[in-house]
Amino acid sequence: MRPAPASAGASVDTSAVKPSPAPEFQNIDTWINSEPLKLEQLRGKVVLVDFWTYTCSNCLNHLPYVKDWNTKYKNQGLVVVGVHTPEFAFEKSTKNVQAAVKKLQIEHAVAQDNSYGTWRAFNNQYWPAIYLIDKQGNVVYSHFGEGRYADTEKKILALLAQP
Known about the structure:
Elements: E1 12-13, E2 20-21, E3 30-32, E4 46-52, H1 57-73, E5 78-84, H2 94-103, E6 109-112, H3 117-121, E7 129-133, E8 138-144, H4 149-161
Parallel strand pairs: 4-5, 5-6
Antiparallel strand pairs: 1-8, 2-8, 3-6, 4-7, 7-8
C-alpha cells in the first residue's frame, strides 16, 4: 500500500501524544548539509523531524515554517532534520534531492530515506509530518499535514525552555 500525502484539509493533530522513545534514524542513504546524525548524540537538544518530499505541494507549503524555525531556534538548541522519503522513483536520485535542497535553500540536515527505514521506524504515514523529540529523546508531539504552525512553534519554545 502506498502512503498517501496529507492534504491541507486532512491535517491531523496529535499534540497530546503520550511520550515515547524516539526511534533512531535508520537505513539513511545520504546525509545532505550534515554529517550522519544519531538521535542518541542529540540528547540535550530538541529535535524536529520533518518527513517530506520535494514534489509534494503540501510539503512545499509547510517548508517555509520549518526553515524559519531552524533559523530562529538552532542557536537555542533546536536541531531540524528533514527526512526526505520519496513518493516516486525519480525522487530517489541523490542528485535530484541535492538540487532540490539547493533550489529550496534548505540549510538544515536532510536525511535521504529511500528505503523508508526511518519512515517505518516512526510508523509514519503522511507527507508532511512533523515529530518533536524532547531533550531526553522522547517523541512528545506530532502533526500531520499543513497547519497548526503557531501550536507547533509554541511546543518548540516550551521544549527549548525545559531543563
